[in-house]
Amino acid sequence: MVTEPSSIARFLSALGEPTDVPGRSPDRGPPYWKNTVLRHKALGDAA
């Protein structure tokens, strides 16, 4: 088992894999329901 960070980086580099941590994906928007009854229940909007 490989546990040393330098060994892991060397192994990944030899395979052509990235050794850095990927960035976070952008936030997504709020959910949207086409059904107005469900949307009103979930969001607490006045009907």
Topology, please?
Elements (H helix, E strand, L loop, with lengths): L4 H11 L20 H8 L4
Structure description:
The chain is an all-alpha fold. Helices cover 40% and strands 0% of the residues. The chain has helices at 5-15, 36-43. The N and C termini lie far apart (60 Å). The model has no long low-confidence stretch (mean pLDDT 83). Residues 13-34 are annotated as: Disordered.
- The poorly predicted ranges are none
Estimated share of beta-strand residues: under 5%
Number of strands: 0
Kindly report the average pLDDT value: 83
What is the distance, rounded to the nearest whole angstrom, between the alpha carbons of the first and last residues? 60 Å
Rg result = 23 Å
Query: Number of helical runs?
Result: 2
Order of helices and strands: HH
Query: What general outline do the C-alpha atoms trace?
Result: rod-shaped
Q: How does the major sheet shape up?
A: none
- Summarize the amount of helix as a percent range: 40-55%
Which structural category fits the helices and strands? mainly alpha
